[in-house]
């Protein structure tokens, strides 16, 4: 069973994650893992916190001489900002910020100080997810599965990438400070973020995560909760501020006819093949061998310099939100979290299908399956 659990608060001493179920003997590319943490911290539009933190992975268990040993892997990511907050006396937060967990979380857990809700609801937690996802990517790489992402839109500015192969989109996004493969659109996105910052507002957008070379048959049609499309949607939707998830061009497909949408299958020397991938790599809740394409919509960041009406729960009177340090736009960062969530979901589905207490037997089984298909 492959599973992971994160813990830690935004301004606590550290974030931590335990990942259980990785096969033994998996060599870890620690630099690549730290690079994912760095990419999550980056992306045009981020706020001041990222100048303080320089996230790096510390292993507390499950790894020996750079390889997994089959035991749970424990990762620690210290919060440098903790030192700045330790001694600080902060008055209780009593004005719930619209778009945050404050109002519902305070009510649910009986916490009068809404900061205690915000500390865990904060997307700082995604550093731990990205660390876990980076571990999962090592496993996927061992069987030649590649995960990438790109920013598709910010504040209504759309990248034009239809003519660009997926691999090129991902490579171009890696070279961009806003993780967008279309340089013209990227310039407009930056300008839109600058403008939002100037007027004290925030922006959202969409990003796309792709998984290449995924073996056929991960997930299953036989039970609702084994369907890979549903599992990917849940994983990506669970990212803070993500409110929509789409497999392939699902919403555009909904306006077309069946014969315009379904990807025809042709005989070929290496088995059945397709010219198109409008299904986004998933049919019947299973991977079908085409690239998996998951698109996510992120709402605008809920903390804005411009106040939003709320209620002071201490008095019951009308109030305005108070600004605290925040990103203006975190769509680029969220795309890296999206990669992590897709990697974790695929790692789980891969291990379900092929098993694997040690990496060599897993690699062999995946290779046999690919060869026989
Ligand atoms: C990478 C990332 C960074 C974020 N940064 C901020 C931020 O700086 N300020 C903020 O108000 N919300 C930020 N958010 C979004 C909030 O965490 C999120 O909207 C809030 O916790 C409420 O959860 P919900 O939007 O999923 O309902 C960020 C989200 C992600 C994925």
Which terms summarize this structure?
alpha+beta; binds flavin mononucleotide; 20% strand; 5-stranded antiparallel β-sheet; 4-stranded antiparallel β-sheet; 373 residues; 17 strands; Chorismate synthase, AroC fold; globular
Give your account of this protein's structure.
- By secondary structure, this protein is of the alpha+beta class.
- The protein has a single domain, classed as Chorismate synthase, AroC fold (4-Layer Sandwich), CATH 3.60.150.
- It is 36% helix and 20% strand.
- Strand 13 (282-283) and strand 14 (286-287) form a beta hairpin.
- The longest helix has 24 residues, at 331-354.
- The mean pLDDT is 96.
- Residues 47, 99-101, 121-123, 126, 239-241, 299, 301-303, 326-327, 330, 333-334, 337 line the site of flavin mononucleotide.
Helix and strand sequence: EEHHEEEEHHHHEEHHEHEHHEEEEEEEHH
Rg from C-alpha positions?
22 Å
Q: Per CATH, what is the topology? A: Chorismate synthase, AroC fold
Based on Cα principal axes, name the global outline. Answer: globular
**Terminal residue distance:** 26 Å
Strand order of the largest sheet: 8-7-9-15-10
Please name the fourth-level CATH homologous superfamily. Answer: Chorismate synthase AroC
Contiguous low-pLDDT stretches (5 residues minimum) are none
Largest sheet data: 5 strands, antiparallel
**Total helical segments:** 13
Which kinds of small molecule does this entry bind, naming each only once? flavin mononucleotide
